[in-house]
Amino acid sequence: MDDNMKKNNRSLKIIVYTLLIAYSLLTLAPFVWSILTSFKTTAEIAGGSTFLPEAWSFRGYKTIFASQFPQWISNSLFVALLTMIFNIFFNTMAGYALARIDFKGRQLLFSLLLVLIMVPSQVTMIPLYIVISNLNLVDSQWSIIFTTMINIGYIFMMRQFFINFPRDVEEAAAMDGLSSFGTFIRIVLPNAKAAVATQGIFVFMGVWNEFMKPLLFISSPNKYMLTQGLNALSKSFKNSTQWDVIMAGSIISIIPIFIIYIILNKYFITENDQSAGVK
After folding, report:
1. Which structural domain, as residue segments, surrounds residue 244?
2. Span 199-216, mean pLDDT?
3. For the chain, which has fewer Cβ within 10 Å, the N-terminal or C-terminal residue?
4. Phi-psi map region of 6: left, alpha, beta (phi>0 left; psi -120 to 50 alpha)
């Protein structure tokens, strides 16, 4: 019986691992195709007869760096990093306040925030444009930062994290004479690295891949965000889309996301124990 169970478990593991490997290959295939396509000539891409490039070409990368692409990368980095910092600061403080500070109307405010989560972002686009126009921020990168510096979804996430955070740590800090703000900055925030890192990664990715807001708010080519710039670049070719150029730009645009993920990965993966503060 034991031998049969072991054989069944081994067979089940083989099936599961086979499915996981197949799924991984299926997921990676479009990414690998994009990389290889960036090194093909336009004629070879149009032919579509080979998976690997017959003659490796760097034309796509040369063309992309000869355009305003480096400026667009710089613009997106500035906006995404600054927005990530603002989100981490404001969302974390708001989540902590909703979880720990007992003020009048707290539950009503939290309920209103939950209702606002359900409102599609497309509905608020025109009101946002009117606000940005009144603030004279149209055609400015600050229009993107201003409209994305707070996220209700991450306020909710941080609130849930702090609700489960052990109160003993905060009470010990209060007994040592720390104020509420001091406790938050020196005790609570360092022990919330996992939640903060998770928030930071997703905020950065969201802003980095944002297309609608830049298209609505920004019109000067030198102020374009990366997604907006790639879209304009693809439309600049009159006869046909130069897929080697587009793929080269897309591959380069992924690199900053990888870097951010690598930096924050250790917190994102290994520091999920919310009881770490009681050690």
Report:
1. 68-278
2. 90
3. N
4. alpha
